[in-house]
Amino acid sequence: MGAAKGSKRDTPTLMSLARELGVSHQTVSNVLNNPELVKPETRERVLKVIRESGYRPSAVGRALRTSRSMSIALRLRPSGDGVSREVMDRFVHHLAEGAQAKGYRIQLITAPDDVDEVRLLQELFRDGSIDGTILTDTHFDDLRPQVLASEGLPTVSFGRPWGASQPTVPWVDIDGAAGTYQATRYLLEAGHDTVGFISWPTSSGVGEDRRSGWMRGVADLTDDPAKWMVTCQDSVREGAAAAAELRSRGFTALVCAGDSLALGAASVFRVDHEGGPLPIVGFDDSPVARSLGLSSISQPVEDAAAQAISILLKLLRGDHDGPLEQLLLPPSLRIRDLELFAL
Amino acid sequence: MGAAKGSKRDTPTLMSLARELGVSHQTVSNVLNNPELVKPETRERVLKVIRESGYRPSAVGRALRTSRSMSIALRLRPSGDGVSREVMDRFVHHLAEGAQAKGYRIQLITAPDDVDEVRLLQELFRDGSIDGTILTDTHFDDLRPQVLASEGLPTVSFGRPWGASQPTVPWVDIDGAAGTYQATRYLLEAGHDTVGFISWPTSSGVGEDRRSGWMRGVADLTDDPAKWMVTCQDSVREGAAAAAELRSRGFTALVCAGDSLALGAASVFRVDHEGGPLPIVGFDDSPVARSLGLSSISQPVEDAAAQAISILLKLLRGDHDGPLEQLLLPPSLRIRDLELFAL
Lengths: 343, 343
Hints:
Two copies of one chain form a homodimer. Helices cover 43% and strands 13% of the residues of chain A.
C-alpha cells in the first residue's frame, strides 16, 4: 500500500489493489460495481484499502469497468417562461454535437429536484448506463457536485459552485461580470454620465455576478451604487416599471440582468428615442433581442459546451492529474439598432 | 414455413425460425444482430427465410433481441434564430419525461442532414444502442420514414408525412389548420369584416397547413383569397412590411403563420391601437408572445410528446396490429391584451 499512497505516479490498478488485498481482481471489481455480490466483511476491507490509497474511487472504478456505456447524462429542465431559455437549448445542442464527435452520446434525464437527480444519476452510473454527467443550473447550497464526486461519478459542471469555498468537480462558466462591465463601459463611453442597473433578487448567483460587473463599471462614479439600481422579478412588466423608476431619477442608460427586463426597459426608453442603438443592454442575446434589435450580451455557448465535453472526456480517460479545471469564458457585447420600434 | 406465411396469428419466433432452418437459435440471432459472425452462405439462407416469412424484420429482430438498450434516439437540431424554437425545446423535455416514466431514456443525436441521420440511426439500432426513434421536422420528399421502416427500426414521427400518399410509420402532429381557422373565426366574430394572412413560402408543409385553415375561415367572404394574403420569409422585419401592405389594402385584422411575423405585424398595428387584444394572431405561443401579450395559437406539445412515446412503446412491445396510428391534435387559441405597448 505504501507505494500507491502519496505518490501520484503509481496509479492503483485492479491488479495492484487485488494483490495488496490478497483477493481476486473480480472481487475488487464487484465491490465497486456489484457490491451486493460481496460478503460484507470483504467489502469493508476492500473499500478501506481503496479509500486509503488516497485516490478518488472514480479512478479505480473506471479502471475496473470492462465496458463503457458511451453515454453522458444531462438533466433537462422544463423550459419555463423566460425569453432566455434558448441559451440552454443551444448549450444542449452543442453538447450533443461535441459528445457525438467523440463517440459519446447525451442521454437526457429529468427530475423534479436535485435529490431525485442525484439518486437517478447514481443508479444509472452503478448499473453502467452512463459514464458521466454534465451538471447545469448550479445554485447556492448546491450539494450535487460533492455527492457525485464522492460517488466517483465523472462530473463536469456548467456553472460555478456558487458560494462554495472550493469546487469538488471541474466547471466551465460564462463570466457574466465581464459582460455587464463591458456593457457599462460602452454606455459611459457613448456619452452617458450615469448607467443604472435593473437587477434580479440577490438569491441568484448568476444575478449577483452580473450585478457585480456593472458595479465595477460605475465604481469610480458613485459611492452608493445601490441608488443607481432597482431590483425586481424577471418579467417584461417589472422591467418596464423598474426602467420607468430609474428614468424618473434621471438615468439615461441602463444595463439589465436579463433580456426580459431589457425588453420592458426598451418599451419605456423607446418613446423619445431618435434612432440608432437604444441605451439599454440586456443579457443572453435571446431570439427576441435579436428579432427586435435590442443590444445584449451574448454567451459563448458553443465554446462552453465544447470545453465541458473536453474536460469530461479527460476525466473518463483518467487523465486528470493536477488541480480541477475551472474555466471562465468571456461573453461578448452585441450592439444593435432598434428595429421594431424604428419601423 | 407455410404456417408462418400469410397468417398473422403465428408470429415467427426465434425458436420456430431456427427449427424451420435446422440451425441453432443463436445463429438466427447472430444473423440479425452480429451478421459478421455468421458464414455468408448461412446468413443468406437465414435472411431468405426471415424475408419470406412475410413479417417485417423488426418484429423478428425484436423478438430475438436478448436485451433492450432502453434508449430512444432523437435528432436535436440547431436552435436557429426563430422565436418559435421553444416549441421543440418543450417537446424534447416532455419526451424525456414521458420516456423516463416508462424506464426509457432519450438519447440525443445530431446530424448535418437526413442522410447522416438515417445512417447513424441504422448503426445505433444494429449495434443495440437504441430501441427506436422519434423523427421530427418532417418535410416534403422526406424519405426517412420509409428507410427506417424497412430497416425495421421502431419509429414514430412528430409531424405528418407531408405530400406522401400514405404513411409508413405512425405519426402525431398538431392540427395547424384548425388553429388558424379558429383564429380567423374569432377575429371575424370580434367584428372585423375581413381577415388577412401573412404566409410563409409554399415549400413548407407546416406553412401550407396553417394557411389552409385561414383560407377555410374566409372561404365564404372572398372568391380570391390570394388577394387577402402576403407571402414573405419568417422574420420580424418582413412581417412588419407584409402587415403594412395588408393594412394599406384596408385589412383591420391579421392571422400570421408564426410569431416572428406576428411580432412585426404588431409593430405596425399597435400605432393607433386603443387597448385590449390587438387584432393580430400569431402561431406557436412563443415566450416573446407571452411576454408582450400577443395573441397566438398554442401547440399541445406535452400531449404530443406523451402520445408519441405511448405509440412508440406499443411498437417496442410488438403490440401494433391494425393500421398505423395517425393522430392530429387540436391547438388552442390564446387571446391576450397587448402588454408592452400598453405600458
